[in-house]
Amino acid sequence: MPSSSKASYVRYLMKKMLSGALRTRGWVAFPEWRLTRWPAEQHLKKVFEAYDIDCVFDVGANTGQFRDLLREDVQYAGPIQSFEPVSGNIATLRERARSDPAWRIWPWALGRETQTQTINIYSSPGLSSLLEPDLDAMHKLLPRSDTQITGSEQVSVRRLDEVFAEVTAGLSFKNIFMKLDTQGYDLDVIAGAGRALAKVSALQTELSILPIYQTIPDYKVALQTLAAEGFEISGIFPVTHDHSLRLVEMDCVMVRHTPAAT
């Protein structure tokens, strides 16, 4: 074994031994950069266990960050259906999915109507949206380096209820978890889900507190809409703060009090 590989293996063993020793005493060791996201990871673990989640819809996959969180931190090994319309991201996702047979990539956005729309692409890939930006708000609330529009694309938008049979073909599941991260388009995805939404036992949506896009639904409207569909708040986690530490966006995990339809 090369010396570099031996050193890596030794570091791995030391990390494993240290983590095991700390856990026996009720402590957890992880890098500082994981500190803010650790509560959300732990909450998702509990939700996946409590609701016996056996299928995930990853809507707005970007380059696969949520898949990584599920595989590495939540320890979820089941099927993931990722939806992503931006061509550069699709290519990245397809390449990455080659090593994960339970991960499938669908090259569409989801919305309330089946159509072709224009998506704006930003220097920060996490800001790409089918909604028009409020550039003044973006510049005030976010780092300016993130808010430059670098291009746009014509993308396919599909209704979830129209493609549900296709994306679940060959899968055996009872409880879906749906992650929504569409930069203001989450309620459009819900509107296009139709009867397929009854199969969703729990979901995560990104809520807007200080709007950075034109016509983005207010968080109170979003919560009322989802409550009318049978979902209740399970956990809320900050995503973005402005320079004054005001909350701009937050992730909200919601669950059905009664089981999803089978």
Give me the number of helical elements: 8
Architecture in CATH? 3-Layer(aba) Sandwich
Can you summarize the main beta sheet?
A: 7 strands, mixed
H/E series: HHEHEHEEEHEHEHEHEE
Describe the structure using short key phrases:
single chain, 262 residues, alpha/beta, Rossmann fold, seven-stranded mixed sheet, three-stranded mixed sheet, 8 helices, 10 strands, globular
Written description of the protein model:
The protein has 8 helices and 10 strands. By secondary structure, it is an alpha/beta fold. The protein has one domain: Rossmann fold. The strands form 2 sheets. The protein has a 7-stranded mixed beta sheet. A 3-stranded mixed beta sheet has the order 4-6-5. The mean pLDDT is 88.
Compact summary:
The protein has 262 residues and is α/β, with parallel strands linked by helices. It is built from 8 helices and 10 strands.
